[in-house]
Amino acid sequence: MYAVARSVQAQLASPKEQTDLPTFVRRGINSRHPPTWMKEIYKRDFFDNPAFNAKLGGVAAASWQRLESLALYGVRFQQKEADKRKSFKTNTTPAYEMMAFAINPNHGCAWYSRRCDYGYEEPWDMVELLIDNLLDEPKLMTELLELMMNMAVYGDFDKGDRLLQKTDAFFKEKLSMTLDTFWEKIRKETAIPKFQDKAAFKQILAFFQKDPSFLYEILDEIIQSSKANLSYVRDVCGVMSVIRGLTSNQRPFIEWSPTGKDNEIELKDHDDKESAKKSPLSLLSHTYGNKNHATVLIPSETTPQTLVDWVKATQREQDTGITLTPAHISSWM
Predict the structure, then answer these.
(1) Is the whole model's pTM more than 0.90, yes or no?
(2) Biggest CA pair distance of the chain
(3) 264-269 and 86-90: which strand pairing?
(4) Rg for the chain (alpha carbons), in Å?
């Protein structure tokens, strides 16, 4: 039942390949919230079960049609159609009409405007999800470790870089090398082009695959820091780049800005230069670069996917106590 619910949720958040669903479900079950027996049963009996996953894909694929048959869908459809916050047209071809919603920035405009398949999670929720899945996804652990090693290069002991100092102390105690020693070994392996393939990196990766407790400790510190200021997790520690690996089929992050014409905006894509020219479903997460706010844009066309996003956006406004008014929009524009 949990697997079916998560798969339907994933499909409504953004269309999924059937092969993505088992991993999406496992990540949710791996989180610290479900009981251990659920993790054991799913990974033992269902994760690699072709028949089960085929049925899972079938249920997820039919979720839109089932949603449209529910009475609640009809009610929400009418509510979204009656929502008058249809403020902008994009300057793409064709020009889609977009609805704008305000969300609390908390130093995290880019974070909150980027929606991923798990909903409107706080950054620390996603870091928790990363912690809970490191052992089952070696690629994520490799990327995190590579990030930490590169951060060590750019860190500054003189400024009291806590992560750098803790990592160096841990290396001395557990791996009998300093960070400087590690990088000396890396530089000597000139014949091996990829950082992840170098012997020194493989050595420490093998250690953490057996005992990831130090990585957990570092990530827990990042959670505490991000709760005080989102810019830490977004800009300083760089964990966002690893978290992207958790979001299958994540929608692109696109900035928007006024064109000078009435109610028209220009989309500036950060990831895929062509995505702004595609369907409105790829244009669901945007931010205008103003430090005082974060804004979500949603296509005014009502489909199961845009309706789900509309419900999330209106709920977020209710939770944060922020309402986007025409006057507020004008002051930004």
Answers:
(1) no
(2) 66
(3) parallel
(4) 22
